[in-house]
Amino acid sequence: MAERVELFWDIGTLNISRDGYSTWKSMCVNNAVPIPPVHVTQGDVLVLNVRNSLNVPTAVHAHGIYHNYTDYYDGAEMVTECGIPPGENFTYIIDTTTQAGNFWLHSHVQSQLTDGLRTPFIVHEKIKPSTYDEEKLLYFEDWDTRSFDEESIIHSTLNVKNIPTAYRMLLINGMNGNVTQPVVFVPGKRYRVRVVSLLTVFWLKFRIPGHTMQIIDQDGVACNPVEVDGLDMGPGQRFSILVTAHDTVEYNYKYNVTLYADFFHPSPGIMPRYYSGLIEYQKNASLQTIPAVSDDQLSWSNTLDLQARDGMPLLPVDRQIVLTVKDYFPELDIPYYTFGDYAYNHTLVPTLFTALTMGDLAFNSSIYGLQSQAHVLHYGESIEVLIYSDNINDHSLHMHAGEYQVVEVGPYGDAAANNRTGVAFKRSGPAPMRCDEVTIRSYSYIKLRFRVNHGAIIFFHCHMIHNFKGLAVTFIAAPDLLQKHMKVPDEVIKMCKLQNIKTSGNAAGNAGFDLTGLPPPFLVNRE
């Protein structure tokens, strides 16, 4: 029977050593870190009561969860809500009727995610999707010991040669990656290992040498089982794998995690960083020695190799939207990244409220302001998003309020001239895998498809810190259905009024096409 699972989160900060080396200010919940993972069963309603004890607004996003005309609980500040002002309380109601799998909860306000306001959100299936005996959870965070502004400046330097040794440690299940608790295996048992990337800047590779791994889902979508040697995961991605334990307790094994980013120059002992944890069959058993194998000799997870288990076929294309990743590096400042000529930025009215209150004009993208990078979609349309990137950085692309089919990748631009390997052409099978997070590699293109099957504000953005510097667009899906089916609770409106944020009108809070008062959008200098 479905239940209401009620939690109370008092969000604040705490000075603590999370990496085992330095004490630094971490976001915390109820004056403690790490924030405990949240577990519910499919069909449950998570009631998350939040108290904001910070001196700035906050908001909580349930990453990967869809909303059936309750987008105001999506947690995207100034996109679908106004955020929670300091000293105030707000309740998120998250219904899991239609979904199960690995998700996560995190802040959607500036650097609060990178500063630690994040934890896995696991929705357990009522009926196991595969045969296994037990579950294990491994979740990974990148962690720094400097302010977000200092970190951004270092990250944004194109040719980083000397990365400080303190830069971006790995946390495993909330603690320093090399001292985390062992994962206990019982001989002969089959395990579902939930692997969740809460990373914000880096990618990771995960392996359990000496064991076979089978992928059975990605981002909460079940797939036909695929055997791999390891997982190659970008920020925000989640997998479930099946691993069968050996029949003997003679040896223990190590699992290996590599923290890397292709946009940093290699630096021995610093980038990439290597971590390992223990697969423990028996305390004090000898460690099995596994010969080292280079990454290029191993098979790694690739969304295009997966097929959705429900067999949903490749969607047709009613309309194609073309986005181009651009960057602009102003002198003595961190860069802007964009999906076109203009950098995304918040407007004066949350985009959801503009769509709800502007009547038929909600179908005209200009009322949302150039800085919202709005694309208006119609109910029933099958959309293909074609993204080009001749950018030196990889980007992890997240879609709110739904999932997309990953259809095709290929080379774009001159990778070799910029010391990059480049991407080979690859296309999905007949039942493309669907997910909400995918990596577009440097000097490549990618094709994604989804169908507009309900009204929603779909925020589509880079899940790295580039989101704060403009790499986002907004899809306004079926605004007529939003107006017909959505009623915004008084509590949501109250959070806006407390911050003097308007909840009606165009992007400037005015009538019609009058955008007077809206700050001008940032036009990327392409010279």
Describe the structure.
By secondary structure, the chain is mostly beta strands. It has helices spanning 148-155, 351-357, 479-485, 490-497; strands at 4-16, 24-29, 38-41, 45-52, 60-63, 89-95, 101-107, 118-124, 134-143, 169-172, 175-176, 183-184, 190-197, 203-207, 213-218, 221-228, 230-233, 238-244, 251-260, 273-280, 286-287, 319-328, 336-338, 374-377, 382-389, 395-399, 404-411, 426-427, 434-435, 437-440, 444-451, 456-462, 472-477. The protein is globular. The model is unreliable at 157-166 (pLDDT under 50).
For this entry, give a set of tags.
7-stranded mixed β-sheet, 38% strand, mainly beta, 527 residues
**Tertiary shape:** globular
Biggest sheet overview = 7 strands, mixed
| Structure summary, number of beta strands | 33
Find the structural class using helix and strand composition.
Answer: mainly beta
Low-pLDDT windows of residues: 157-166
Summarize this structure briefly.
By secondary structure, the chain is mainly beta. It has helices at residues 148-155, 351-357, 479-485, 490-497; strands spanning 4-16, 24-29, 38-41, 45-52, 60-63, 89-95, 101-107, 118-124, 134-143, 169-172, 175-176, 183-184, 190-197, 203-207, 213-218, 221-228, 230-233, 238-244, 251-260, 273-280, 286-287, 319-328, 336-338, 374-377, 382-389, 395-399, 404-411, 426-427, 434-435, 437-440, 444-451, 456-462, 472-477. A hairpin with a 7-residue loop joins strand 1 (4-16) and strand 2.
